[in-house]
Design brief:
- The structure is a single chain.
- The protein is α+β, with helices and mostly antiparallel strands and 385 residues long.
- The protein contains 9 helices and 19 strands.
- β9 and β10 form a beta hairpin.
- α7 crosses α8.
Length: 385
C-alpha cells in the first residue's frame, strides 16, 4: 500500500540502502518518522520542516509519517552493542500514563536481544509513537495504538492469563524489527517469515521474563485461533484472511524447538539467521534451508507439512499388552518427527514416528500413553492397525 501515498517500487524484493524524509508541519504540530532527526528547519510563517535520515536499508511499507501535538521524551537502554537511543511520542494528555506503561519497551528489547541478537538498527535508534490505529512495525519507529492496555486491547489471545502480563502491540511489533525489517521477505507468499517468528517471539518474551512453563502455556493456548482452511504458503499466495501464519506458524516453531530439545541450539539458529541474513531480503527456501543446515536435520518434510498442507499430523497408537504400536497419520511423504511420550505416567521416552507402524515394548502392561502437548500434533488411540 505504500505506493498509494508516495512513489515507490511496490515490491519487497528490493530495498533502498538509506532514506531522507522531509515533512513540513504547521507550527503546533510535530512529525515523528523513521531514523534520526537531523534538524528542524523553521520557516518565516511558523511552519517547520522535520529532516529525518534512515541510515539502514528499509522496506517500503516500513516508511511512515506521524503528525500530531506530541509530547516527547528520550532515554537509553544498554544493549549488546552499546547504548540504544529511545524516543517516545504520545499525545500530550497521555504523557503520564505512557511514562509508566511504556516500561514494556525495555523488557522487550532485553528479551529479544537475548534470543535474536543485537537490535538491528542501533544507528537509527528506536521510537515508539502513539497513533489512532492499533499499531505497526515501521522500521525504527514502531507505532502504537493499544490504548495503554495489557494484552491485545485488553484481551488475552491465548486465554491463559499470560497474555495480560504485557502489552501485545509493544512486544509483537517490536519483534518485527528483527523479523520483517532486518530480515524481510522477498514476496508476500513468504510473509510467514515476518509473522510466524513475531508470533513466537511473544512466547519467547514470556520465556525470558516468566519462564518456560508460562511460554508453553501461552503458545498452546493460541492454538484455538488456528483455522487450517488453507496452507500458510499457498499457490500462488497465502490466504489474506487467514491467521495461520501467526498462530500455526508460532506453534510450528514451538514444535520444532520442542523436538530439538536443545535451547542453546535453537537460540543459536535464531541468532545465526539474524547475523547471516542481516538487512537482507529472503525467500522461504532461504530460511527453511538455513534451519535445516543449522539444526543438522532435513526439515523439508517438516516445513512441507506445516507450510504447504492444511492437515495436522495425528499420532496414532495401539496398545497390546506390554507393546505399544505407533505412527503418524495425516502427513506428507517423508514426514518424521522425534517426539516424547509418557507411558503409564512415567518418564518421557523419545520415539520418532513416521508413516509406518513402529513398536515399543515395556516390562509392564501399558495402561495409558500421553504425548507431550508442546507438539502441534493431534493424538488418537486406535483399536486395530
Amino acid at each position: 500500500g505504500a505506493s498509494e501515498w508516495w512513489p515507490c517500487k511496490e515490491h519487497m524484493y528490493d530495498e533502498v540502502d538509506s532514506m531522507l524524509i522531509r515533512i513540513t508541519t504547521p507550527p503546533s504540530l510535530t512529525d515523528a518518522s523513521n531514523g534520526r532527526l537531523r534538524k528542524i528547519e523553521y520557516h518565516p510563517d511558523g511552519r517547520r520542516t522535520w529532516h529525518w535520515f534512515v541510515s539502514n536499508p528499509i522496506n517500503n511499507y516500513g516508511v511512515n509519517v506521524n503528525i500530531a501535538k506530541y509530547a516527547h521524551w528520550t532515554d537509553t537502554i544498554h544493549g549488546e552493542k552499546g547504548p540504544i537511543d529511545l524516543d517516545f511520542y504520545v499525545l500530550e494528555d497521555h504523557y503520564e500514563t505512557a511514562r509508566t506503561h511504556f516500561e514494556d519497551v525495555y523488557k522487550t528489547i532485553r528479551a529479544f536481544e537475548h534470543w535474536f541478537g543485537p537490535y538491528p538498527f542501533y544507528n537509527d535508534g528506536y521510537k515508539l509513537i502513539e497513533v489512532p490505529y492499533l499499531g505497526m512495525e515501521h522500521q525504527s519507529s514502531v507505532t502504537y495504538g493499544n490504548q495503554f492496555k495489557k494484552g491485545y486491547l485488553g484481551r488475552d489471545l491465548s486465554k491463559t492469563g499470560w497474555g495480560l502480563k504485557w502489552d501485545f502491540i509493544i512486544v509483537h511489533e517490536t519483534a518485527h524489527e528483527w523479523w520483517a525489517n532486518s530480515i524481510t521477505y522477498k514476496d508476500i507468499e513468504d510473509m510467514w517469515i515476518h509473522e510466524s517468528f513475531a508470533n513466537y517471539a511473544e512466547s519467547l518474551f514470556l520465556d525470558y521474563h516468566y519462564g518456560r512453563q508460562a511460554a508453553n502455556e501461552y503458545v498452546i493456548g493460541t492454538r484455538a485461533n488456528i483455522e487450517n482452511r488453507s496452507p500458510i504458503i499457498g499457490s500462488p499466495y497465502h490466504d489474506p484472511d487467514s491467521r495461520d501464519m501467526y498462530y500455526k506458524g508460532g506453534n510450528m516453531l514451538h514444535t520444532l524447538r520442542t523436538s530439538l530439545n536443545d535451547d542453546v541450539l535453537f537460540r543459536n539458529v535464531l541468532r545465526g539467521m539474524q547475523k547471516d541474513f542481516y538487512h537482507q531480503t529472503v525467500t522461504s527456501a532461504d530460511v527453511e534451508q538455513y534451519m535445516s543446515k543449522a539444526t543438522g536435520r532435513n526439515l523439508d518434510p517438516f516445513f512441507d507439512q506445516y507450510h504447504r498442507d492444511i492437515r495436522v499430523p495425528v499420532f496414532e497408537y495401539l496398545i497390546k499388552g506390554k507393546t505399544l504400536r505407533y505412527r503418524f497419520n495425516n502427513i506428507v511423504e517423508g514426514f518424521r518427527l522425534p517426539v516424547q511420550i509418557s507411558v503409564n505416567g512415567g518418564e518421557k521416552i523419545w520415539v520418532t514416528p513416521g508413516a509406518k507402524w513402529l513398536e515399543l515394548k515395556q516390562v509392564s502392561p501399558i495402561e495409558s500413553v500421553q504425548l507431550d502437548p508442546n507438539y502441534y500434533v493431534f493424538t488418537k488411540q486406535v483399536t486395530k492397525k
